[in-house]
Amino acid sequence: MNATARQLACLVFKDLRIEARSRQTLGLMVMLGVLVVVVLALGLGPQQVQSPALATSVLWVACLFGGVLCFEKTMAIEREDGALAAVLLAPVDRGVLYLAKLISNLLLMAVLALVVMPVAVVLLQFDLGPHLGWFVALMALSFVGFAALGTMLAAATGGSRLQGGLLAIVVLPACLPLIVTTTQLSVRMFAEGLAPTASALGVLIAFDAIFLVVCWLVFELVVEP
Amino acid sequence: MNALLQRYGPLFWMLTAALFAVMVVRVFFFTPVEATMGPVQKVFYLHLPAAISTFLACTVVFIASIGYLWQRRQFWDDLALAAAKVAVLLCSIVLISGMVWAREAWGTWWTWSPRLTFSLLLWLLYAVYLIIRPAIEPKQRRALVAAVYGIIAFIDVPLVYLSVRLMVDVHPVDVQLAPAMRTTLWISFVPVVLACVGLIAMGTLALRRSAPASVPQASAAGPASWPQVSLSMKSGGVT
Question: Which domains does chain B have, with CATH numbers?
Answer without folding.
Answer: 2-209 (1.20.120)
